[in-house]
């Protein structure tokens, strides 16, 4: 995992070889517990006044001071809802802000691009921007995928720290969230579910299982759609009449038929460089690649 971080950190900091190929994950609540008169954490009261266990909350880690400066100068890129950074942004910042120390800037960019809010922007597929907020390139599909995977892992870690009574529900919600987001991303890329699963590589067994589940669902859906298209073509009926025959709305019938015809079209060419987790292990860390090496 750390090797992937180092690779991704180096890549964004250089402008030479481009890689091929965004607000659901939340971080743990960092607000301090309310102190009791004796200096401890005040117990919570449940129904009937019964005392409930008090959760231990981690103190919020302060942001790197250089990030505070960058957020003041470039709030759209380093503020509360940051936009994805262009690859090679490190050198641009060094030129624009020579007063910032090189090592401090490396650390600040690494912290920023590992943050949940930055990963959320990458996962949303937002385009990369330069210091003038100009779009310089679209977000690579592989980077979106790896950002989604990392956000899912953070949700799972948060669920693992939750009370046992809530844990299973939170873990299931995390899996459902990733399934929805991956399905949306598959549709965005224009790949079939099978091609997507073969292109977006990951060593995470749970994510692999979810991808295979999506492939199976897509295959079953495709078979149903194609059967409906054959029935429609054999019927000689209008879309409206065909929809009535099967108890569908005209819109639903039209969608099924359009989807079936789409499945019959040749698949788009696969990317020349399939995503490999040995490269961008966490999609957000590409934003600091010029710095050379992460901690």
Automatic annotation (TrEMBL):
Keyword set includes RNA-binding: yes
Keyword Lipid metabolism attached: no
Species assigned in the record: Corticibacter populi
Stretches assigned to the ProQ/FinO domain: 58-167
SMART domains linked to this entry: ProQ
One GO BP: post-transcriptional regulation of gene expression
Keywords: Chaperone, Cytoplasm, RNA-binding
Biased segments, Low complexity type: 19-37, 277-286
Name of protein: Fertility inhibition FinO
A molecular function (GO) term: RNA strand annealing activity
GO cellular component entries: cytosol
SUPFAM superfamilies for the chain: FinO-like
Region described as Disordered: 19-62, 261-295
